[in-house]
Amino acid sequence: MKSIATIKIDEKVYEFPILEGTRGPKVLDIRSFYKDTGMFTYDPGFTSTASCNSEITFINGEKGELRYKGYPIEELTEKYKYLDICYLLLNSKLPTHEQSIEFDNELRHRAFVDEGFQSLFNAFPRTAHPMAMLSSAVSALSAFYYDHVDISDESEFAQMSGRIIAKIPTLASLAYRRGLGIPIIYPDIDRYFTENFLYMLRAYPGGKMHRNINEKADTKISDIEVKALDTIFTLHADHEQNASTTTVRTVASTGAHPYGAISAGINALWGRAHGGANESVIAQLELIGNVKNVDKYIAKAKDPDDSFRLMGFGHRVYKNFDPRAKILKKLQDQLKDELNLDSRLLEIAHKIEDIALNDEYFIKRNLYPNIDFYSGVILTALGIPKNMFTTIFVIGRTVGWISQWVEFKKDKKAKIARPRQLYLGL
Ligand code: CMC
Prior knowledge:
By secondary structure, this protein is mainly alpha-helical. The chain has two domains: about 5-65, Single Sheet (Rubrerythrin, domain 2), CATH 2.20.28.60; about 100-425, Orthogonal Bundle (Citrate Synthase, domain 1), CATH 1.10.580. The protein has 18 helices and six strands. It has helices at about 35, 75-80, 80-90, 95-110, 115-120, 130-145, 155-180, 195-200, 225-235, 245-255, 260-270, 275-290, 295-300, 325-335, 345-355, 360-365, 370-380, 390-410; strands at about 5-10, 10-20, 25-30, 55-60, 65-70, 70. The strands form two sheets. Strands 1-2-3 form a three-stranded antiparallel β-sheet. The structure holds carboxymethyl coenzyme *A. Carboxymethyl coenzyme *A (CMC) binds near residues 313, 315, 316, 365 and 370. Carboxymethyl coenzyme *A binds near residues 274, 277 and 314.
């Protein structure tokens, strides 16, 4: 039986259907609210608003549960590589062995970008933030593929999705290398997606590889490094209707080019309340500098008159724990010796975690470490500088954005995003 909610306003009773999804809370369908009552609903920050139907990702924030296409994130990170997760998000099923090889191979060949991008990157000052360069480059990508997106054709969706997923690591590496003023390195089709990205960061013409610019040793890329980064990509692959995904869907709703929508998503992600938090976490640990200073900064975070926040703590949806953070904490512990994690930063992070998890302020507000609290220490050990961290989030999330873009385009009832307001002006 269809359930109905009644709302009484000024003695008049209105009825609204209650919708039930396959998982998650029931949803009150207020689409006719304005037409029926002449009133708007008010929900800044969308804390109580479901903005679309989706079959991609499910989160239960109270239980700390995250699923892609029905599969728990724990199972996906344990058993599958990142490109299989991309396949799952794009095709709603995990690939067979042959499909996995074919998809991997297709992406390797799509990883190259037009030579013109070198001039584009050279036009940026070397001090430019990699996120500024990356979002601009993705926007520029829409100029190269303007005529080729026929969304009525299923294979066009696949081509358009594969292209952007494959090229994003190449563009991120160009941003990194521009910042250092060093020659570009082309993708190596003999390497898997994640290994290839590390290669494009580390390699020098002549074949030597350095984990970072100051290192003299020739650093091979180890399997454990590839596995660690691959896990980080998988954990970032999608996260339902967060700020950047909502941005992508909003831009999609106007009929703009898909890569324009992704570029807008990248800029939304950059902020430190969202994906930019991973860079801020390490910057904050460096600022704290010593375990002796942790108490002082915890006090600042709790002070209502101080805007200081503990970066990597809290989440709009997770009110118990962030399952992604749990996986990364375990990975961090496993990698401690193998990857030579920075013990000083780890010591400060552990102290913050210990204090915050037992402190009334954080407990009362359900503030737990989120994914960004743990990813930075691992990325640092991979030789990736902190201004590149949010581009790592971008590489992982691109598949989520493009899957959500495709889902939006296939929804025949989708409308342009156009909220209203509570006007308080003259
Ligand atoms: N440190 C100290 N206090 C905090 C923090 C924090 N990190 N986060 C929230 N609070 C307090 C906040 O001051 C407020 O207190 P009060 O009720 O006394 O006014 C209360 O907790 C609720 O905060 P809110 O800002 O209303 O919560 P929100 O759901 O709107 O914001 C958040 C969520 C993630 C933006 C916020 O927790 C935050 O700014 N965290 C730090 C940045 C961060 O780590 N972001 C990464 C999120 S995970 C990656 C991703 O998926 O994007």
